[in-house]
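TL;DR need structure tokens for one chain.
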Amino acid sequence: MREIIEKFIDDNGQQLLHDLGRLVAIPSVAPVSPQPGPYPYLEPCAQALDYMLRRGSEIGLSGENIDYRCGVLSYGDGDESIAIAAHLDVVPAGDGWTGDPFSLRVEGGTLYGRGVNDNKGSAIMGLYLMKFLQENQIPLKHKIQLILGCDEETGMTDMPYYLSKKKAPAITLVPDGEFPICVGEKGLCEGEIISQPTSDDSPILSLKGGSASNMVPSSAVAVVRATGLPTPACGDITLCEKDGQTTITATGVSAHASTPDAGDNAIGKLVDYLLDCALVEGYEKDVLETARDLSCTCYGEGFGVACADETFGKLTCICGTIKKDEQGQYAIGFNIRWPMAIQGDVLKSAIELCCGDIDAKLQLNLFDEPHYVDPEQPAVQALKRCYEQVTGEPCGHYVISGATYARYFPMGLTFGPMFHSDIEQMPAGHGSAHQPDEMLPLATLKKALAIYIDTIAALDGIL
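>> reply
TL;DR here they are.
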């Protein structure tokens, strides 16, 4: 079997790169929320899905387009299924690329292009796994499915939609991380606290900080109707006076919401300074104190939900955005990642209590419970054996603070396609998912394909 797999990968290498190149060329960036009309995630995402379903049909697989929310390619006809779930949407290209982000480049055995790692490379890997099964007519008890989503990077509304229409697979592998095996993901909560309008004569004319609720903000700016403010004790705050107004700028260090201690929250610095200046009283002061509580701590102290467990570690909580609009209302954006040490309803009640203290409205945009699969499960042990057979390396397991499609499936496990050594070799600020010059070693993609072919056969035998 090993020789057959290796020959298949060698024989199909050029066509695999051609298919990946065609997919990378589609700038399939999904909108923040589903749109009305035939293409809920816009036409480029629909084009990417159409391409994959068409290629699957050419290979001889059965395919289904589920309202352009997602699609599925299938091999076999068992009552139960084993699935691979990958996504076709990508984050915007951004700046800093050394080449065209939507043109696949192969340099020194490495693939470059937006989505090669996250997650179009994995989608193509899944397609060629299915091609291997089809060409060799591998007899399996289970139906094998490749589920293709189009909204992973924004709202992840695609997988709940899929599961509202289709039966959940017996096990779902998600190639959207690192080998070996991710068995758990922290709970995710993201939302905004919307205050009541503040006084029309407030000296704070505008206030804005951060660009995304899931990032520790590196800057925050306020314009106040006042001059002669005290010199900030913090060296990361600057003052600029003009025409009876002062622009106050706070500078911090950006970091992902899952690792807030690696950052330095600019909103916390700005709000703390404004409160020290005693510019406002009453309701607006209460709102700013709430913002300070959330932005000057990072483990849930502001909501009174600090906790930890052995599996996931500490709950993390950041204030990622703040904005005062023209009506004087504040919107405070937050992101919480919580372990199994706290129940979802307890967490939600604590957030609602905090909002009630300032008569604010709570808008929850995301609220997903933690996801965890017992590593002693037979399926997880089968994955470990397959990984060790192909790589010759011991296979452990880990948990993450981020989110993948795995959390939506009862038996969802993130499994590759990258190896930690791949990530260690990337230059700072380049090469990783969401960064410029996103990259994936071709050898890694081929190795992951071999691991997945072996894994599907093994899982079919034990489930």
